[in-house]
Amino acid sequence: MPLLECKGLVRRFGALVAVDAVDMSLAAGKIRAVIGPNGAGKSTVFNLITSVLKPTAGEIIFAGENITGLPVHVVAQKGIARTFQLCHIFPALTARENVRIAAQARDDQRWRFVGGGRVLSRSAAIADEALEHMRLTRFANVSAAMLSHGDQRLLEVAMAIAQKPRLLMLDEPTQGLSLEETDRAVQILKGMLSVGNLSVLLVEHDMEVVFKLADDITVLHRGRVIADGPPAAVKANAAVRSAYLGGSE
Amino acid sequence: MNWKVNFAVTAGACVLLPFMVPQYSLTILIEALIFGLFAMSLDLLVGYCRLYSFGHAAAYGLGAYSTALILTQLQLPLPIGIVLAVLVTILAAIPIAWICTRSTGVSFAMLTLAFAQLGYAMLFRFRDVTGGSDGIVGIPRPSGPLGITWFQGKTGYYYLVLGCLLGSYLLCRAIVRSPFGAVLAGIRENEAKTIALGYNTRVYKIATVVLAYAFGGLAGALYAAFAGFASPELFFWLVSGRVLIMVVVGGAGTLIGPILGGVFFVFLEHELSQVTDLWPLIFGSIFIAFVMFAPEGIWGILTSRFNAKPEVPNSTDRKETSDAAA
User: Fold this and answer.
1) Residue B187 included in any domain
2) Which numeric CATH code is attached to A4-79+165-245?
3) Taking Cα atoms as reference points, which of A22, A18, A19, A29 lies closest to residue A8?
4) B200 to chain A: which residues are within 8 Å by CB?
5) Is residue B307 part of a domain?
6) Considering only CB atoms, which residues of chain B are within 8 Å of chain A?
7) Nearest-CA neighbor of B164 among B102, B85, B70?
8) Total-model pTM
9) Chain B contact for A86, CB < 8 A?
10) B136-137 and B229-230 strand pairing
């Protein structure tokens, strides 16, 4: 049974069909990339799975459970963690506190409103581990606003892994990064993904990044799936080449 | 545990204060502490959730009128009356919080203001119970339980108010440093992200509004039993405006700052109103000056004077370190 299954997902914005009958599945422990030109519907698919948007039709099955249309925080509590295309962090808080709040979200005693010292230290330990994974330990006590853009993106990934998700969803983790920063981010991500047996859904613009990281690729074009398979097959697919790669290779 | 020493010293000084000042200035001192407590309660919303309530007078008025009604109608000891009044305030706050937190920003501010004005209007609508524009006068300070009477005198009442303020401060301090308080910081910084992490932020916001009402209601209850009357002005939007100014001038998001802001303004108003009728003008000028030149407030000025600033690497440092990392 796949960990995540999207069946006939449709999302309309007025007359525009942003996502049109998308079927997609992700097996546990695999990394699937969703690629496509601007406006292909990648981010909309992300927002449908995380329930930020409600689908016009279709359903989303996660770990055998229909999660379509549940509130955003409930979907997160099922074990789906995400990063945003436009970096979402807590700028005035330290890097450690950013990740600590993320870790605390999965603690049974997160409601404690007096005391709760053990909750705080438990989640701080998880946070330090996640910062270590992302090689951000040196910035633990620095306020997140002071980090470079690349480090902020990694910080958001650290927050996502601190949630101990069953499914990790990364929305263009290398967007806006310099070439050097992208290389470094890919290295770190690759290291992290190979260690933990994580299931990952990745939206990415940068082809190089996708072919380095993904086990399988879904190609979207104008809201429809035009190809689905391992990187080599997708690379060779004629429809993909004309729609997306523009036959430039 | 440096703060514990500071807290003990401050509390000790407050305990000794009645022996050092003339009896008549205790009145102004009690009022200052009550307003300090009131401002601190609003700080939970403004400073920690960035929820700007323009109707916090509702909490104050609810606490005051509940106390007035309980003490004049029922033969209950003062402490029990105050506790009941706080409970009444909490019960009233739950639906108010539920409705107000449906919105954020300006609409939240307007909704809170609307509820306070609704309370104000209701005082005139139900004048049989509330006394209309006359308010409720002759609120007693009944003794007990167990025949305790020490709070009936002015000095004793000062200690009652001081005890409530210090206890509330310790409780609020624990709350903002708890796991719950960390989520409030998340809501303040980026609510969408906090939801995406799996927190039901609406529940956190409702709980915080109710907490703020509870402490604000306690301040109102202490005021009513001290002044001996409750008048509709307690619900009026000027009270909401004043307490918001106290929070901002004192230093939002610090708990201590708003207490200082409340004390500062009560004393200032007392002194200035004896000298000139134009004191609201000075009041306003001070507010503008703080917003423009010291947005971190009185407490911010004090702490930056006595403590070295925490070391924050500047942008060039940051560039070097990330280069080194790459």
Assistant:
1) yes
2) 3.40.50.300
3) A22
4) 71, 73
5) no
6) 171, 174-175, 178-183, 185-186, 189-190, 192-201, 207, 312-313, 315, 318-319, 321-322, 325-326
7) B85
8) 0.89
9) no
10) antiparallel
**Which residues of chain B are within 8 Å of residue A143 when distances are taken between CB atoms?**
312
Q: What is the pLDDT along chain B (326 residues), one digit of tens a residue?
A: 588 888 888 888 888 888 888 888 899 999 999 999 999 999 999 999 999 999 999 999 999 999 999 999 988 999 999 999 999 999 999 999 999 999 888 999 999 999 999 999 999 898 888 888 888 888 888 887 887 888 888 889 999 999 999 999 999 999 999 999 999 999 999 999 999 999 999 999 999 999 999 999 999 999 999 999 999 999 999 999 999 999 999 999 999 999 999 999 999 888 888 888 888 888 889 889 988 988 888 998 888 876 654 444 443 344 444 444 43
Domain assignment present for B42: yes
User: Chain B within 8 Å of A151 (Cβ-Cβ)?
Assistant: yes
**Interface touch B198/A159, C-beta < 8 Å:** no
CA dist A235 to A28, A161, A219, Å?
24, 30, 10
Q: How far apart are CA A113 and CA A211, in angstroms?
A: 46
Give the β-pairing of A65-66 and B136-137. unpaired
Structural domain of B212: 2-236
- Domain ranges for chain A, please list them: 4-79+165-245, 93-156
Chain B, nearest residue to A164 by Cα: B197
ipTM of the complex: 0.89
From the list A106, A123, A151, which residue is nearest B198 (CB)?
A106
Structural domain count, chain B: 1
Q: Which residue of B has its CA nearest to A136?
A: B325
Question: Which residues does residue A224 pair with via DSSP β-bridges, in sequence order?
Answer: A221
What sections of chain B are H helices per DSSP?
A: 2-20, 25-46, 57-73, 78-100, 105-125, 127-130, 154-176, 179-196, 201-227, 237-250, 256-275, 279-293, 297-306, 315-325
Residues A30, A18: Cα–Cα separation, whole Å: 26
Q: Is B325 part of a structural domain of the chain? A: no
Match 């650290």 to its residue by tokens: A158
